[in-house]
Amino acid sequence: MPAAATAPIVESAVARVERLASESAVVVFSVSSCCMCHAVKRLFCGMGVHPTVHELDLDPRGRELERALARLLGYGPAGAPVVPAVVPVVFIGGKLVGAMDRVMAAHINGSLVPLLKEAGALWL
Amino acid sequence: MGETSSSTSHSRQQDPSLLGYGFHGVIATSTPANFFDQQGAAYFGELEEAFMHQVTSLRRTQQSATISTAHHGDTKPFPTAATATPTARPPPTLDIFPAWPMRSVHTPKDGSNLTADSTDDSESSSKNNSNHSSDQLEAAANMAGQFDQVSQQQQQQILHKNMATSSTPKTGKTLDAKQTIRRLAQNREAARKSRLRKKAYILQLESSKLKLAQMEQDMQRARSQGLFLGGAPGANTSSGTAMFDVEYARWLEDHGRRMADLHGALHAHLPDGDLRAIVDDTLTHHDELFQLKAVAAKSDVFHLITGVWTTPAERCFLWMGGFRPSDLLKTLLPQLDPLTEQQVVGICSLQQSSQQAEEALSQGLEQLHHSLADTMAGGSLMDDADMSFMGGQMALALGKLANLEGFVIQADNLRQQTLHQMHRILTIRQAARCFLAIGQYHNRLRALSSLWVSRPREYSSAGTKELLGSSQVQSMTDGLPGGKCFKRNGHPPRYRSSTILSYTDSFLMYLLTFAYARASIRKGPNSTIDQRGNLPTEFFPKIQGRLMALWDAIVTMKATIPVTRKGSIIILMPIRHELTDVTRKAVAAIPVTLDIPIVIFYN
Predict the structure, then answer these.
(1) Closest CA to B249 of B297, B289, B298
(2) CA atoms within 13 A on the CB side of A74
(3) Are B320 and B407 in contact (CB under 8 A)?
(4) What per-residue confidence (pLDDT) applies to B406?
(5) Residues B347, B348, B352, CA angle at the centre, nearest 5°?
(6) What are the annotated GO cellular component locations (chain B) (predicted)?
(7) What is the pLDDT of residues B464-477, one digit of tens each?
(8) At what angle do helices B235-267 and B272-299 cross, to 10 degrees?
(9) What is the 3-state secondary structure (H, E, C) of B401-453?
(10) Closest chain B C-alpha to A85 CA, distance in angstroms
(11) Cα–Cα distances in Å, from B231 out to B114, B241, B303, B363?
(12) Are B564 and B598 in contact (CB under 8 A)?
């Protein structure tokens, strides 16, 4: 690997995911055509939160990011069977919340709103 | 004459089918095991005689001692000696046909234990046959085979030895012996075959009976849920959906039982620890249903989404393959009084968040609809370019359709989380009441559906003679289930028992309200009773109106209810546990309020 000072160091997908996740209070990795991602976005908008959305299908390195997300979510390595739709994946305050089911569970048991407030995404 | 008796006995033996019939007749009437008990000592006595006779007759026919010992050994494979008295289980020697060894001694011995009657003879022979057959049934099949083998050997030996011994004084007897041995063997074979056939037939009958009972049960369950039979979409999906339907029916039964347990536990004022266990159990049971639905969603999501597995009334409220959590919370909140301030806040925020989640999922689903519609219309609908559409676009559409599964699963997840959160917010007793309320609500919806399905459809437009005269009462019945169907022409409608029952339930509930209201108002210190001693006016007409309407409905249903000689109405009611107290008090209240004799039976 060239140790050039000017060229950007090629970061691993996981590192990139983590970097993107910590850039905003609420980060959603989605696919533009996915309806469940649309649902998650509507959920946050309904609560008055404006998440940062990264559309993986519009990203040149989207595939890698998707695989990294799958690994973060705990789906096994390449040996595992075909992973169902990984997206949407939600990070709040740089920490992984999870896929849609985790987000909904968090919202229902009342832990989502405090999390959002803590991250500074909600002020009420 | 000995010969005649022998011939008759022979003829009996020569006809194996007749013998077989004798078998069947014997077996059909009483189990073989009973035979021993019934016949008892007399039987054994006869058997012992037969033994002795056989032994002596055998000794007569075979001259060599070796043959006889071998013979004895062969004929008595079960460990009893030839001279031993029969034990509780007399050896099933095939050769104890009293007709054979006793034919020479039978007729002369008129005064012996064994009667000379041919009927008795046949009876004892058939008894022995049945004994032999019963033992055959008890023993393994290979025993029978062994037996036959053994007896075959024995026969061969006898024949062999008989042929070897050319002693003339016994030739007549040996020839007879040969013949009878052969005939006996044939009889045995025929009897064995018929027994095996009969066994197979019985097994077949039993299995088909079981299958029929199972099918009837399944059909009844399906019918009671108002499902459409025979609407299976396709070969690969129908098995998954059929299995889900069966499992769901089982879950419903289980659920009913648990609700009854919960109700009993609640009213028995059990300590909180026990109640907690039952409530947790109920929650787990609900989780099981969500599991079932998840599996079914993978097999056929449309089955869940279109709500074929629910009853019509439930289907009307269906949201993404199940109940809408915020609706349920809205219904439950007033039922759960008293609640602490904190609990109220908790439930309200739960309601709000579930509403937001539902909104989000609904919008996601709408997005899916739009996307799918675009795909299906994709390109041009005008061209005859179906082939190109079939190729790429269809695959795309299929992919989009697969997302439905995710939505149903998320909706179920939402329902599950809502129930768990409710469980967390409420105290144990409140949670118990909450689950009971949910169960009761859905029960009522299901009852409504069955009423709807069974409502009489005899409408005649011209000249409808309305059974309920006043329009005022009619308007009051409009709120009742099936209220509008009171407008009928002359002949009485045929109601199903479920209709009658649910009407009587409502009737009794209202009756109780009425009676209690009167009683409490009379007793209460702050009674708002007016001069005439009646209920407050705004309270009274509504309840009385409904009572009258319900009573009229029951009266018009009289045609389908049996009426006793005294002219009272008998209403059969299953035990509705939540109405036990109600009905008891209502029964006491009825003659006072309405002056009509009603007899109510509990199942």
Answers:
(1) B289
(2) 4
(3) yes
(4) 92
(5) 115
(6) nucleus
(7) 333 333 333 333 33
(8) 170
(9) HCHHHHHHHHHHHHHHHHHHHHHHHCCHHHHHHHHHHHHHHHHHHHHHHHHHH
(10) 9
(11) 70, 11, 11, 30
(12) no
Choice between B507 and A108, residue whose per-residue pLDDT is larger: A108
Q: What is the pLDDT of residue B126?
A: 46
Residue A124 within a domain? no
Top-confidence range, A24-33, B30-39, B546-555: A24-33
CB of B40 within 8 A of CB of B208?
no
Q: Strand A89-92 and strand B569-573: pairing?
A: unpaired
- Using N-to-C axis directions, what is the helix angle for B272-299 and B403-425, rounded to 10°? 170
Mutate to test the interface with B, among A30, A33, A34, A35 (most CBs of B within 10 A): A35
Assigned domain for A5 exists: no
- B contact set with A (CB within 8 A): 346, 349-350, 353-354, 356-357, 359-361, 363-365, 367-368, 371, 400, 403, 406-407, 409-410, 413-414, 417-418, 420-421, 424
| Cβ partners under 8 Å of residue B488, min gap 6 | B456, B458, B460, B464, B465, B466, B467
Judge whether A15 is closer than 8 Å to chain B, CB to CB.
no
Distance, in Å, from the CA atom of B82 to the CA atom of B73, rounded to the nearest integer, reads 9
Question: Which among B97, B87, B49, B91 has a CA at the least distance from the CA of B74?
Answer: B91
Helix-then-strand count for chain A, H and E: 5, 4
Cα gap B568→B43, rounded to integer Å: 61
pLDDT tens digits along B207-256? 999 999 999 988 888 776 655 444 444 444 578 888 999 999 999 999 99
Residue B100 has pLDDT above 60, yes or no: no
Q: Which of A97-111, B158-172, B364-378 has the lowest mean pLDDT?
A: B158-172
Both tokens of residue B20? 């077989």
Question: Does the model's pTM come out above 0.95?
Answer: no
Residue spans of the domains in chain B: they are: 239-378+396-452, 559-602
* Shortest CA distance from A42: residue in chain B: B360
List the structure tokens of A72. Answer: 């973060």
Rg (CA), chain B: 40
What are the Cα distances from residue A64, in Å, to A56, A67, A70, A72? 9, 5, 10, 12
* pLDDT tens digit sequence for B174-183: 778 899 999 9
A24-33 average pLDDT score: 93
* Mutation to test the B interface, candidates A40, A104, A111, A113, most B Cβ within 10 Å: A104
Residue B481 has pLDDT above 80, yes or no: no
CB contacts, 8 Å: B403 with chain A: 34-36, 85
Count the alpha carbons within 13 Å of A53 in the hemisphere toward its beta carbon: 19
Query: Which structural domain, as residue segments, surrounds residue A102?
Result: 13-74+86-119
| pLDDT confidence of residue A107 | 95
Query: How does pLDDT run across A34-45, given as a tens digit for each residue?
Result: 999 999 999 999
Inside any domain, residue A2: no
Q: How many independent structural domains does chain A possess?
A: 1
Amino acid identity of B360? A
Cα B82 to Cα B52: distance, rounded to the nearest angstrom? 8
Pick the more confident residue, B143 or B251. B251
Residue B296's φ and ψ, nearest 5 degrees, are -65, -35
Interchain contact, B357 vs A85, CB within 8 Å: no
Task: Enumerate residues 6+ apart whose C-beta is below 8 A from A4.
Answer: none
> What is the C-alpha separation between B454 and B387, in angstroms, rounded?
47
- Residue A112 binned pLDDT confidence (cut-offs 50, 70, 90): very high
pLDDT of residue A13: 86
Q: Name the band, by pLDDT with cuts 50, 70 and 90, for residue B599.
A: very low
Burial of B95 (0-12, 13-18, 19+ CB in 10 A): buried
